[in-house]
Amino acid sequence: MKRIIYPLTIVLTTLILPSCDVLEEAAALVTTNTEPTKPQLSNADVISGLKEALNVGIKNSVNLTSVTDGFLGNSAIKLPFPEDALKVKQKALDWGLTEQVAKFETTLNRAAEEATKEALPIFANAITNMSITDGFAILNGGDGSATKFLKDNTTAQLVTAFSPKVEAAIAKVKLTEYWNPIITKYNTAMNLTGGEKLNPDLTKYVTERAISGLYHMVAIEENKIRKDPLARVTDILQKVFGSLTSN
C-alpha cells in the first residue's frame, strides 16, 4: 500500500502547485483590471470647472456681503473713510463732528451692501465671457489663482457695469446727506485758510472698494473648493478639483 500512496502524492502535488500559481496570476489580473480609472481631464473640462468655481464663489460672496453688516461687520473688507480725504476726517473730529463721521462711515458700508445685491448677474456675465486659454495653469496655480485671473481680466468692465448700481445704492441709503455737512464745513474752512479743497468721488470709491471686497470673498470661496470636497457642489467641480487631491 505504501508503495502506491507515495507516487500518488507526488503526482497530486505536481498537479496542484502549478494550478495554484495559475489561480494567483488570474486573481492578480482580475484585481488589476477592476481598479477604477481616474477620469482624464481635458482643457475644456478644466475651464468649465474654473468658471463654475467662480460662479459658486460669487454667489456665496454676494449672499454674505449683501446683507446688513456684510461689509461693515467684516474687518477684511469694511470700507474706511476715503484715504484721499483723511484730512477731512481729522478736521471733522477736531470740530466735534464725531457722530457725523461715524454715521458717514457706516453709510459708506451700507451703500456697498446695497450695491452688491445687484452684483451677481454682472459678475456672472463677466465670468461667462472670460477667455481662458490654459485652464491647467490656473487650476495648478494654487490658492486664489482663478479669482486673480478674473480680477486681472474683468475689473475694468466690472467697474463700468457696477458703477450705476453703486450710484443708485448711494442715493437709496442717503450717503451724501451724511457727507455734505462734513465736506462743506471743511471746504469752507479751506477758503479761509487757503488750504486745498477736497471732495472725493464717492461713487468711484464705493465701486472700487465693493468690487475689491467681493474679489476677496470669492478667493476665500475658491480656496474652499480647492481644499474641501464638501464644497464641490457640482459634478464638474468634483471632477476638476478632485484631480488636485487625487494626485
Task: Characterize this entry briefly.
The protein folds into 2 domains: 1-30; 42-245, no CATH class. Helix content is 74%, strand content 0%.
Characterization of this structure:
With 247 residues, the protein is mainly α. It is built from 10 helices and no strands. Helix 2 packs across helix 10 (235-245).
Fraction of residues in β-strands: under 5%
Low-confidence stretches: 4-17, 26-35
Basic shape = elongated
How many strand elements?
0
Reading the helices and strands in chain order gives HHHHHHHHHH
Largest pleated sheet: none
Question: What's the domain count?
Answer: 2
Question: How many H/I helices?
Answer: 10
Q: Span between N and C termini? A: 64 Å
Helix/strand-derived class? mainly alpha
> Helix fraction?
over 70%
- Please give the radius of gyration in angstroms: 32 Å
Mean pLDDT: 88
Topology:
Layout: H1 2-34, H2 43-65, H3 86-94, H4 98-115, H5 119-128, H6 135-139, H7 145-172, H8 175-193, H9 202-227, H10 235-245
Helix pairs in contact: 2-5, 2-9, 2-10, 3-8, 4-7, 4-8, 4-9, 5-7, 7-9
Characteristics:
247 residues, elongated
